[in-house]
Amino acid sequence: MTLEQLRALDAVVIYGSVRAASAQLYKTAPAISALIKNLETDVNIQILSRDSYRPKLTQAGEVFYEKARKVLNEAEQLKALSQRISGNSELLINIAINAICPMHPILNTLKQIEQNHPNTQINVSSEHMGGAIERLKHGEADLAITTTMNFDSRLMEASHLMDVTIIPVAHHSYPLSQMEMMIPRYEVRKYTQVIVSDSSRHDEKLSLDVVEDGKRCHVTDIPSKKEIIQAGLGWGGLPQYVVQDELDSGELVALNVEGYPPRISPICLIRRGHDHAGPVAQEIWENLKLQLNDV
């Protein structure tokens, strides 16, 4: 019996299929199947039932898996402990950040971390909608700073950092800006809504605050969305801190759209719950919570 076999079993149970587990562990589906079959041979137990489309734990498999999870947790804790004892910092930390988050307070924290751990490379990716959670779930990020869309409390741990208010806006010359009363949905459908596309690559694409059957313009980032709205080519929701100066000057106008009031998006610091962070990841986790909590 090996840890590699137990990790393969764990991935199949968590992600629901051999194919999904193979993507998570960067192995082929036949390799995952072989690891589990060899495990069953080693322990002389049928762990998974293959009678249905998706493999399920047998009664004996449930008992075995419960103990296997404890072994994997202990192994991760031992690895993290050895890093702390030896003083070895992680060589690389990947952080996925939802693009609606204000970067300045986050970067202030990361600057301090970089000074404390000069041998650790910190990579930051800007994501949209479900992209940050997806990167975390698939092992492509060590930490995510994002909303809790697609958050799975069985697999992840979250700590609230701040709230970001999203406001529907348009240029002051845009026809919707001339309407003083609440704008009914049937009316807003006639005008182009500018939408930032979900950056997820594997999971189902998410959308939020999108007018059904309305005209749309899809972009890949928030700065492009803001510029298009400022050019009078459409309307859309943007973080209040991004457009506050333009709202104050009158260049942009907050819209009163039926069913689309200003929305408060809680931003959380998230990590995989079954992981045991190394010293740098743990320091980032603690410092961000301390410095940004309820900002």
TrEMBL record:
InterPro entries: LysR_HTH_N (IPR000847), LysR_subst-bd (IPR005119), WH-like_DNA-bd_sf (IPR036388), WH_DNA-bd_sf (IPR036390). The keyword Transcription regulation applies. The keyword rRNA-binding does not apply. It comes from the Bacteria. GO terms for molecular function: DNA-binding transcription factor activity; transcription cis-regulatory region binding. Residues 1-58 form the HTH lysR-type domain. PANTHER family: HTH-TYPE TRANSCRIPTIONAL REGULATOR, LYSR FAMILY TRANSCRIPTIONAL REGULATOR. Belongs to the LysR transcriptional regulatory family. This is LysR family transcriptional regulator. It comes from Litoribrevibacter albus.
